[in-house]
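Q: I have 225 residues here and want to know how they pack in 3D. Can you give me a structure?
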Amino acid sequence: MKSDLFSHDHMVQPAGTPGMSLQNSKSIRYVVQGEMYARQGAMVAYRGNLQFERQGQGIGGMFKRAVTGEGLPLMAVRGQGEAWFAHEAANCFIVDLEAGDSLTLNGRNVLCFDTTLSYTISTVKGAGMTGGGLFNSVFTGQGRLGVMCDGEPLVIPVAADDPVFVDTDAVVGWSAQLATSLHRSQSVGSMIRGGSGEVAQLKLEGEGFVIVRPSELTQQKASAN
């Protein structure tokens, strides 16, 4: 049987070293030898002796309640084997966190991560945020984190004297040391006249970066995720 479908670009190669790697731009491969964590329902294929266990409340340590910022439960993957993770053909990226690093992510953008990373559910400062997520996950520790984004993300540097304003429905994540607040860019008069559709943004100040998806999250999409 012959087809471009069976080219090297698409064919899965033998497993390499344990841990996380990009299978392609839309999926992440994880060679499991022990345990790892992933967004529930994100496994698209696996082989080997693996078990998938939904994490609920009170399962010790970091699992005070194993949910990401949008209320999506996580699962533990245990055993020996390899698994592939993806979600709605979103673009996938791997972030290597080192000791002292701290990254804030919206829950809808978390795909999978090493057990060496820990996270806390943190309230985003800026009351009134809705689609962008009132609660985000702050990841710390040393290990790899699988991130996904609809479309090609924008990574915008933030400088002390040059804050960045982002739409709350488009923000993916940011350096956890940045200060956040809600900024209203529309006057009362403009709102009365119908407004521009850009009522408020998340203001980020300090030194770091912010990751933005190239479109706003629609209510229908938010409900589906």
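Q: Anything worth noting?
A: Residues 219-224 form the longest helix (6 residues). Residues 57-70, 127-132, 187-197 have pLDDT under 50 and may be disordered.
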